[in-house]
């Protein structure tokens, strides 16, 4: 096998003295930046993870005297075999003495720097210390096989060559075992002496740095393979699963072969006439994907690969969104950082060129991430929302909607970001809940601004001394725009003021006191100040009462001239303090108190959203919303999960017109033109008013329309195009059909529109999904898709929303390849976050990923994401879940290695559909596989991908690996030809079908392993991704429910015996097991599965009895907790010392009783019910139940031990 072995070097720490065994060929490495040249420099950047098992326990014990570090100590490098170069590297015999200890040295010409691996800063004190790998090397010097100077690990060592007799071999082995303990003792003493001599002057290592992950080897695929060529699978499988080896080379081959194109479908023998199409929700081109995008990709790709394997003609369209506000903000910060130039200092064309340059430089990063994740997209149909074809579709949509009377221009209230100086959509508004007074930073101000304060002040009643009307507000600066005060008509407190007028203390304006039934009497003072130019509720009230609109806040967030000279040009929040001071001076301030409120913030800039009155373009939504609602209610559009239909109805019934103007430069410039008539007497009035606007696909078309409307020659008109651009959500709403070529009647549009499915996050149900439905139905006459599957939002392990400012936004590539904490924090420092947010985010990363993120691989990430219930309330993603999925990958890897070894050379498989099981175990495993296939098909149809993943995981882990593979080992050792052939056919069928079931979730691993299975005939598919997905109908002859029911009895016995083995710590012993079952039918089942039962329970002998007759059971037997119809006994004769075991159980019993007593006292506490969460209460009850169960188990074990003879001769446990 040609594969490069790379070593991951963690923070050094001592391996446990009781298990200092090298599993990989390590080379000495002492805190420097050089390694022997024979080692590949493509090292993993992943930091060390905490060691498991005895290693972690040893590390904890050694914290009091931490292992010292070494700056750079030269060492002797013995000849070492390198798998990558096929050469041996030899060092010199020169040694140097440091503090009285001989240390081998390394010649300089055998070292080279490794630029790709960042090294931690170790102890750089004046005293040189020996690092853990050096100590391992010294220890291993006496443990190597072969001639002097040849250094190998146990896993790669070969025994000495020569014609040694069996007698000599046995004598050498016996001598080695005899002196093993003495050798280990001498080595420990030697290392302790070295440490003691070097410990003086060293500083204690902080615990957080002393802990590290175990050394992990990464095998790299290094067989020369050009991009697009098929991966070479002729070499043996590496010893363990390595994601980088598995995921190399496959994707480019898939793309080149055209497996992801719908045109490839005609080559499939199992092709179907149906099509399946969907579009990937276009991610913003602004940066890189995060785990929320990764969830979408994992779910959609699993569905796409499943449909493709079923034989559908599949099209999955990739694309990216231009993200107007986000992209412009990023580029503005970039040119300011690099050139010190503001956007306004550039011409529009110059700035747009800067954006396009940035897009060309950074825009492909997202597509690279998608390819690394294995997304089976048709890259020939990739779409960008600013491409010329898509831009044409956007213009066409705007013009058609305007011609249909659904797009209009009007002066209305909009969400305004003063920092961006643009209107923004509802989805870009982050509503922050404030419980009371809260100080927040605001862009453009030095200090913090208090919010969540309800201020009360009074308006004096005109002509009535001493009479006043108090009002309350959280925005006192807007009182300069008040035009009235409203009260409820039935409020007795203010009935005498109906029809009166109030005096404005600063403007002199007289404000009428109005009555309106929408006023809430319990809110504040019950009297509401009306500021229609800065409040949606006041705007509607003003329209009902024909009130004027006075804008007091400008686009840049400063106060306007209508406020007076004393406030004009002042920042609105500085004006707030000035207004409060003026009210106090005039004796009108009536107090302030904390007040819960919702504060709208701009998600792009962090600025507080202002509601401003602006001339903008709007889309009438009422009629289109009604059509979208009817589509769901009639069943033509299905929402999954179904509970979203209620929210869909609520939103569409209460939708308002949609502002689609954005005051940006990057985006689709609105195809609307303001018409001016030069030389006209009312030209001044035209410039002051909004004027006449026309819409056209081109300026020439618009000029023609204007001439027809005004009855003037086209050459006499001056047209000025609207400088604003369209809301990004407007263009995104066209994606399902614009990406297929609309408005042109392309072949793709006719074949793949409407799409079969839309899969996206539930947070986009209204802002994107509803708008796609409305625009698609209005512009094409058809719904853009017939089904919508919505997944929940991905949160971090603590349930928090992912946010860059919290430091919990994770790049999928960091999970796939691993990332040290240092690299994660460097990314934050190089981001566009505010320095204060960077500090908070770095602290969060330090807390959540103290050792960085481990390498998990693409398949593990995809499988972990799909394993969550995506249609629930939320997904709290923990990286530990991805690590668990990676271990599952290793389990599958080892299972296939075992299977391939069992199949051997020259095995000719038959199609699974033609395999008929002969033995009970074969019937059981194939019946379990049949039901797994059936369950996967049903769950896939319901888009329950987490259930599909769970079903496949259960089969691989429990049915195939834990039971069937273990049960066939005696058969494989027996050499019985008839049984071997049937077993091998079953093994191959299980591996083939189970890999195809797993393929939609783990495309790389399944391809790597499936390609190595023996081929079934010459017509075998070229890739697993176009192989037929298993069908329950074709495997119906595997269904044996009786065998599954019978094996459940066997599994109960196995679990009971294994539980008892664990209780008495019988690690290797194989005791005699007695099954006493009076029922003949069940006893017959045990007899049928006798061989498997004995193998799985690790029994030396299995005896079946119809009843306990006389003295058939030895006194040394103990009873296992079985089921009511079968008594299970295990003979412990010679395996345990009853007296010692009783002492152990007594100690354990006392400990558990203390825990139970403490927990019981806590649960019965006075304030337990009020203070403890329901989840914690459930955890406590479960723990109490487990403690009772274990105590009962201990009591039974003690009772059994007391019945045994006092002293027994202990039998030695058999060797491994």
Automatic annotation (TrEMBL):
<keyword id="KW-0648">Protein biosynthesis</keyword>
<keyword id="KW-0809">Transit peptide</keyword>
<keyword id="KW-0547">Nucleotide-binding</keyword>
<feature type="compositionally biased region" description="Basic and acidic residues">
    <location>
        <begin position="179"/>
        <end position="188"/>
    </location>
</feature>
<keyword id="KW-0496">Mitochondrion</keyword>
<dbReference type="GO" id="GO:0004832">
    <property type="term" value="F:valine-tRNA ligase activity"/>
</dbReference>
<dbReference type="InterPro" id="IPR009080">
    <property type="entry name" value="tRNAsynth_Ia_anticodon-bd"/>
</dbReference>
<dbReference type="InterPro" id="IPR009008">
    <property type="entry name" value="Val/Leu/Ile-tRNA-synth_edit"/>
</dbReference>
<dbReference type="GO" id="GO:0006438">
    <property type="term" value="P:valyl-tRNA aminoacylation"/>
</dbReference>
<dbReference type="InterPro" id="IPR002303">
    <property type="entry name" value="Valyl-tRNA_ligase"/>
</dbReference>
<dbReference type="GO" id="GO:0005829">
    <property type="term" value="C:cytosol"/>
</dbReference>
<dbReference type="InterPro" id="IPR014729">
    <property type="entry name" value="Rossmann-like_a/b/a_fold"/>
</dbReference>
<dbReference type="InterPro" id="IPR001412">
    <property type="entry name" value="aa-tRNA-synth_I_CS"/>
</dbReference>
<dbReference type="GO" id="GO:0005739">
    <property type="term" value="C:mitochondrion"/>
</dbReference>
<feature type="region of interest" description="Disordered">
    <location>
        <begin position="162"/>
        <end position="188"/>
    </location>
</feature>
<keyword id="KW-0030">Aminoacyl-tRNA synthetase</keyword>
<feature type="domain" description="Aminoacyl-tRNA synthetase class Ia">
    <location>
        <begin position="250"/>
        <end position="877"/>
    </location>
</feature>
<dbReference type="Pfam" id="PF00133">
    <property type="entry name" value="tRNA-synt_1"/>
</dbReference>
<dbReference type="InterPro" id="IPR013155">
    <property type="entry name" value="M/V/L/I-tRNA-synth_anticd-bd"/>
</dbReference>
<dbReference type="GO" id="GO:0002161">
    <property type="term" value="F:aminoacyl-tRNA deacylase activity"/>
</dbReference>
<feature type="domain" description="Methionyl/Valyl/Leucyl/Isoleucyl-tRNA synthetase anticodon-binding">
    <location>
        <begin position="922"/>
        <end position="1071"/>
    </location>
</feature>
<comment type="function">
    <text>Catalyzes the attachment of valine to tRNA(Val) in a two-step reaction: valine is first activated by ATP to form Val-AMP and then transferred to the acceptor end of tRNA(Val).</text>
</comment>
<keyword id="KW-0436">Ligase</keyword>
<comment type="similarity">
    <text>Belongs to the class-I aminoacyl-tRNA synthetase family.</text>
</comment>
<feature type="compositionally biased region" description="Basic and acidic residues">
    <location>
        <begin position="41"/>
        <end position="52"/>
    </location>
</feature>
<protein>
    <recommendedName>
        <fullName>Valine--tRNA ligase, mitochondrial</fullName>
        <ecNumber>6.1.1.9</ecNumber>
    </recommendedName>
</protein>
<keyword id="KW-0067">ATP-binding</keyword>
<dbReference type="GO" id="GO:0005524">
    <property type="term" value="F:ATP binding"/>
</dbReference>
<feature type="compositionally biased region" description="Low complexity">
    <location>
        <begin position="53"/>
        <end position="67"/>
    </location>
</feature>
<dbReference type="InterPro" id="IPR002300">
    <property type="entry name" value="aa-tRNA-synth_Ia"/>
</dbReference>
<feature type="region of interest" description="Disordered">
    <location>
        <begin position="40"/>
        <end position="75"/>
    </location>
</feature>
<dbReference type="InterPro" id="IPR033705">
    <property type="entry name" value="Anticodon_Ia_Val"/>
</dbReference>
<dbReference type="Pfam" id="PF08264">
    <property type="entry name" value="Anticodon_1"/>
</dbReference>
């Amino acid at each position: 096998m040609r594969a490069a072995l790379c070593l991951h070097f963690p923070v050094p720490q001592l391996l446990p003295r009781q298990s200092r065994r090298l599993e990989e060929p390590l080379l000495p490495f002492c805190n420097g930046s050089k390694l022997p040249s024979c080692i590949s420099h493509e090292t993993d950047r992943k930091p060390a993870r905490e060691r498991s098992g005895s290693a972690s326990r040893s590390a904890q014990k050694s914290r009091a005297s931490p292992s010292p570090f070494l700056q750079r100590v030269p060492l002797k490098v013995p000849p070492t075999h390198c798998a990558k170069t096929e050469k041996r590297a030899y060092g010199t015999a020169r040694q140097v003495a440091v503090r009285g200890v001989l240390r081998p040295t390394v010649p300089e010409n055998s070292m080279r720097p490794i630029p790709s691996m960042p090294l931690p800063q170790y102890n750089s004190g004046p005293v040189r210390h020996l690092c853990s790998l050096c100590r391992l090397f010294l220890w291993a010097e006496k443990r190597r096989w072969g001639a002097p100077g040849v250094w190998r690990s146990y896993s790669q060592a070969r025994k000495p060559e020569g014609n040694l007799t069996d007698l000599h071999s046995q004598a050498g082995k016996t001598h080695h075992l005899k002196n093993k303990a003495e050798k280990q003792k001498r080595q420990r003493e030697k290392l302790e002496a070295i440490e003691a001599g070097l410990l003086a002057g060293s500083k204690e290592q902080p615990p957080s740095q002393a802990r590290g992950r175990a050394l992990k080897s990464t095998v790299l695929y290094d067989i020369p393979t050009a991009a697009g060529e098929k991966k070479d699978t002729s070499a043996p499988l590496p010893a363990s699963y390595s994601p980088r080896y598995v995921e190399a080379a496959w994707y480019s081959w898939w793309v080149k072969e055209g497996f992801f194109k719908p045109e490839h479908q005609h080559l499939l023998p199992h092709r179907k006439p149906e099509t399946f199409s969907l579009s990937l929700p276009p991610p913003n081109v602004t940066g890189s994907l995060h785990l929320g995008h990764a969830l979408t990709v994992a779910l959609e790709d699993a569905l796409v690969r499943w449909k493709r394997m079923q034989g559908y003609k599949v099209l999955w369209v990739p694309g990216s969104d231009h993200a107007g506000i986000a992209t412009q903000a990023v580029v503005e910060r970039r040119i300011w950082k690099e050139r010190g130039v503001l956007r306004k200092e550039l011409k529009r064309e110059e700035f747009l060129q800067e954006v396009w340059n940035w897009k060309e430089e950074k825009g492909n990063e997202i597509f690279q991430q998608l390819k690394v994740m294995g997304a089976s997209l048709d890259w020939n149909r990739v779409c960008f929302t600013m491409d010329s074809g898509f831009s044409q579709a956007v213009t066409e949509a705007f013009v058609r909607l305007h011609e249909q009377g659904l797009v209009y221009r009007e002066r209305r209230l909009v969400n305004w970001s003063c920092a961006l100086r643009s209107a923004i959509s509802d989805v870009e508004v982050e509503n922050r809940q404030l419980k009371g007074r809260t100080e927040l930073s605001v862009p453009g101000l030095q200090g913090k601004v208090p919010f969540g304060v309800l201020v009360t002040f009074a308006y004096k009643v005109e002509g009535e001394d001493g009479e006043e009307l108090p009002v309350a507000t959280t925005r006192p600066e807007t009182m300069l725009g008040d035009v009235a005060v409203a009260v409820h008509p039935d409020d007795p407190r203010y009935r005498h003021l109906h029809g009166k007028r109030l005096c404005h203390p600063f403007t002199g304006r007289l404000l009428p006191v109005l009555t309106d039934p929408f006023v809430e009497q319990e809110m504040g003072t019950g009297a509401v100040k009306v500021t229609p130019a800065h409040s949606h509720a006041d705007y509607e009230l003003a329209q009902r009462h024909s009130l004027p609109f006075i804008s007091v806040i400008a686009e840049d967030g400063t106060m306007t001239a209508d406020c007076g000279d004393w406030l004009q040009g002042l920042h609105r929040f500085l004006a707030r303090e000035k207004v409060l001071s003026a009210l106090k001076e005039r004796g009108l301030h009536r107090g302030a108190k904390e007040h819960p409120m919702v504060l709208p913030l701009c998600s792009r800039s962090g600025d507080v959203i202002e509601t401003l009155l602006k001339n903008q373009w709007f889309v009438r939504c009422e009629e289109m919303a009604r059509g979208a609602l009817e589509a769901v209610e009639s069943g033509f559009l299905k929402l999954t999960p179904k509970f979203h239909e209620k929210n869909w109805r609520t939103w569409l019934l209460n939708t308002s017109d949609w502002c689609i103007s954005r005051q940006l430069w990057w985006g689709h410039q609105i195809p609307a033109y303001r018409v001016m008539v030069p030389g006209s007497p009312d030209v001044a009035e035209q410039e002051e008013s909004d004027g006449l606007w026309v819409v056209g696909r081109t300026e020439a078309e618009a000029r023609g329309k204007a001439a027809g409307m005004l009855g003037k020659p086209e050459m006499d008109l001056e047209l000025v195009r609207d400088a604003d651009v369209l809301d990004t959500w407007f263009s995104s709403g066209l994606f399902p059909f614009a990406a297929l070529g609309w408005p042109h009647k392309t072949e793709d549009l006719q074949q793949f529109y409407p799409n079969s499915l839309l899969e996206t996050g539930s947070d986009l149900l209204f802002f994107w999904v509803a708008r796609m439905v409305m625009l698609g139905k209005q512009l094409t006459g058809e719904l853009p898709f017939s089904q919508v599957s919505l997944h929940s939002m991905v949160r971090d392990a603590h349930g928090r929303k992912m946010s860059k400012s919290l430091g919990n936004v994770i790049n999928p590539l960091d999970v796939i390849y691993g990332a040290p904490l240092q690299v994660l924090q460097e990314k934050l420092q190089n981001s566009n976050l505010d320095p204060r947010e960077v500090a908070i985010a770095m602290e969060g990363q330090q807390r959540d990923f103290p050792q960085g993120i481990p390498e998990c691989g693409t398949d593990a990430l995809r499988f972990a994401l799909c394993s969550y219930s995506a249609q629930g309330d939320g997904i709290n993603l923990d990286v530990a879940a991805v690590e668990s999925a990676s271990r599952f990958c290793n389990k599958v890897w080892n299972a296939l290695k075992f299977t391939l070894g069992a199949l051997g050379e020259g095995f000719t498989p038959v199609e699974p559909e033609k395999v008929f099981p002969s033995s009970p175990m074969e019937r059981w495993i194939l019946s379990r596989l049949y039901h797994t296939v059936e369950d996967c098909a049903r769950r896939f149809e319901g888009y329950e991908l987490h259930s599909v993943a769970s079903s496949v995981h259960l089969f691989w882990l429990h049915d195939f690996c834990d039971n069937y593979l273990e049960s066939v080992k005696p058969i494989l050792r027996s050499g019985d030809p008839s049984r071997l052939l049937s077993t091998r056919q079953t093994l191959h069928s299980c591996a083939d079908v189970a890999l195809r079931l797993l393929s939609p979730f783990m495309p790389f691993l399944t391809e790597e392993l499936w390609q190595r299975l023996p081929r079934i005939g010459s017509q075998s598919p070229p890739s697993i991704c176009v192989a037929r997905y298993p069908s329950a109908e074709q495997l119906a002859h595997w269904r044996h429910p009786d065998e599954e029911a019978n094996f459940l009895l066997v599994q109960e016995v196995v679990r009971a015996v294994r539980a008892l083995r664990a209780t008495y710590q019988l690690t290797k012993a194989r005791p005699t097991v007695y099954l006493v079952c009076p029922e003949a039918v069940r006893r017959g089942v045990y007899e049928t599965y006798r061989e498997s039962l004995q193998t799985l329970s690790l029994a030396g002998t299995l005896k079946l009895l119809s009843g306990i007759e006389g003295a058939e059971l030895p006194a040394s037997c103990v009873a296992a907790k079985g089921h009511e119809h079968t008594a299970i006994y295990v003979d412990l004769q010679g395996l345990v010392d009853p007296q010692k075991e009783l002492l152990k159980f007594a100690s354990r019993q006392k400990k558990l009783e203390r825990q139970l007593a403490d927990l019981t006292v806590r649960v019965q506490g006075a304030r337990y019910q009020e203070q403890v969460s329901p989840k914690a209460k459930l955890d406590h009850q479960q723990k109490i139940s487990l403690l009772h169960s274990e105590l009962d188990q201990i009591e039974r074990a003690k009772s059994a031990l007391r019945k045994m003879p006092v002293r027994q001769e202990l039998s030695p446990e058999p060797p491994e």
